[in-house]
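During the first year of the project, the team set up a workflow for recording each protein of interest as an amino acid sequence followed immediately by a discrete structure-token representation. This format lets reviewers and collaborators read both layers of information side by side without switching files. As required by the reporting guidelines, we include two representative entries from the current panel. The first entry is reproduced here exactly as it appears in our internal archive.
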Amino acid sequence: MKVKTILISQPEPKVENSPYSELEEKQKVKIDFIPFIHVEGVSSKNVRQQKIDLTQYTAIILTSRNAVDHFFRIAEEMRYKVPDTLKYFCLSEAVAYYLQKYVVYRKRKIYVGKRTFAELSPTIKKYKGEKFLLPSSDMLKPDIPKELNKLGVDWTKGIFYRTVVSDLSHLEKVFYDIVVFFSPSGIKSLFENFPDFKQNNTRIAVFGNSTIKAAKEHGLVANIKAPTPETPSMTMALEKYIKEQNKK
């Protein structure tokens, strides 16, 4: 079956010439971006109820842009002046770069991982004397606490924001040839919005093992999977599939 329309269950990338724009142009398909989940900040009162006192921490572990935004939002709500001496441990260059929205980069102690938490761990281990705060969502990947416990550092998790299911009622009568998921939360959102969803002729694309597992648990057939050695990105996996289907 030919592919003409694709729904990506995430916000549209804010960069020019994104791989999705190229895919749309090259393969002559229509791609829509509709987030199936969104993030909502918790209140400073809620953070206090978690017994978190920002003045007690000497280092912050930032795993995403959301973590950056909500740490500084809570600091402002609590009237906490973030000290220049605070150390920042960022999961990736993208997160570290985003930090510039709030701090003067060259005047801060910022340590950057490559992409995964395992790659950031050796740097954190060098600073065992610090008290680390991990501002996160309620959907934190279990490998992060495991890794921090293994390092033997003094750390605290704070839930600063929550992952919430988006209202997708406007999609009830809409059909897409392919729907793309990047997390189990996206699949959960689909079935919370449409409990009677039947896959029928819709092809499902999934990214990552946990998403593949969630799709299977909900009775979905994952027609397109990434990453693989051949297709390390979702756009590459989609392109390969579209080429195969549209030449028939």
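The second entry, processed by the same pipeline in the following quarter, appears below.
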Amino acid sequence: MTDLSLPAGLVAVVGDEGTGKTRLLRELAGQAQETPSPGPDRDAVWLDLGLPGLDGSTPQGVWDALRTRHPRWNAALLQELAQALGLQPHLEKTLSMLSTGSRRKVALSGLLAAGATVTCLDQPYAALDMASIRVIREFLHANADHPARTWVVADYEADENLPWRRIIQLG
């Protein structure tokens, strides 16, 4: 695993295509190999926001799988996010019936509700409408000063609307 000191709050990982942003997030979450193996001292979570291979699952199925792996799961936060991101009409649908943006909103809701010490978000705004981008940005902004949790956000550039504790430039 990459030995990387992460402060609590918001950390941006930025770089061009192919510079290793996703690889770094997966390493931080202990998912760099086929078999995930988070380090004993790190409670971290990362998901491919496209949710590949889960076409037959429902949003609730995705969230249930995450809930079983994360003891600090926040069901109330999940409901708030699902409502704010407009997922309520899609809860009974399989992921194969959802747009790319809706699939990503399902994954993002689950990641944010997981309650992990380190939450890794890979290009969280991609394929989202502006209202959903605002919801995610507001969540991150509201948690920017959290004393014990870290949100690592990988993208081409650091969102200038957020108060980053650290920006890591790759490439």
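For the second entry, the following points were noted during internal review. DSSP finds five helices and five strands in the chain. The beta strands are 9-14, 44-46, 118-122, 150-155, 166-169. Both points are flagged for discussion at the upcoming steering committee meeting.
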